[in-house]
Known about the structure:
Number of strands: 7
Oligomer: single chain
Radius of gyration: 19 Å
Number of helices: 10
Order of helices and strands: HHHEHEHEEHEHHEHHE
Amino acid sequence: MVNQIEMQDVARSFSKAAKTYDEAAFFQRIAGDRLLERLDFFKLNPKSILDIGCGTGHCTRSLKAKYPEARVIGLDIAQGMVDYSQSQSSAENYICADAMNIPLESNSQDLIFSNLTFQWIDSLDLLFKELHRVLKPNGLLLFTSLGPETLYELKQSWASVDEHKHVNDFLDMHHLGDAMLNAYLLDPVVDNEPVVIGYDKAIELMRDLKNIGAHNVDKARRKGLMSPSVIRQLERAYKEYKLASGELAATYELIYGHAFARKSIPNEYHEYGIEL
C-alpha cells in the first residue's frame, strides 16, 4: 500500500535523480503537458501560482510562460530537484518543503498545480486540507496522480519470477475524490486514462524509473542487486505484454483531478485544527 512509502526515501530518491530526470521522464512530460492543456478549460487570470512537486521545473517554467504576470513558486520535497530547477531559471521561485506543511500564507494562491506528486503522499485527507488552506477563495486546484493499474505489466511479470514487491502500489481515483470532499473542496472532479509507453526491454523501463527517482521505494521491496538470471526470467515473462510494434508495453493509469476552494468553510472544518 502507499502508506508503506517513507517520504524521506522519496525525497532522497528524487534528489539523486535530479540530473538524470529529464532524459528519462517521457511519461512525466506527457502527463504534465496534458495537464497544462487542461488549464484552457478554465477562465483564469492567476496572480499567484504554486506548482507542487515541481521536479526539474518543466511545468513550473511552462506556467510562468503561460501566465507571465503571475508570481510562480515551485515546491518540491527533494532539495536536489529544487537546486536544479533554480539553476535552470530565475523567473520563478523555488522552495524545498513538504506539501503537507506548505510555508505559505493561508488564502494566498489563485492556482495550485501538481503533476504526478500526490501518489507519493500517504494522508490524502490532510494533504487536501492543507491545499485548501493555501488556496484563495474560488482558487483552482488542478493535478494528476497515478492509479492502481500503473505498470501492471511489470507487476505481473515480476510476480512470475519471485514473491518480492518490485513496483509501488497506488490508490484508486475514488480515494482522491473522497479526500477532496472530506477537505470541503468545491465541485471535485476526477477522471482517468491509460497512457502506454513502449520499451525494447523490461530492464530499460526499470532503468528509466530509477533515473527519474520513481523506482520502488516501498518498505517491502527486495533489497540488493538482482542477478543476470533473474533479469532474464523477467524479460521472458514480460514478452507476454508486447505491443503490435513489437515493443513491450508499460501502461500508466493517469488520473486527473480538479476542485475549487470555497468562499467560506463549514464550522466542522476547524475541528481538524486548521485555521483559514
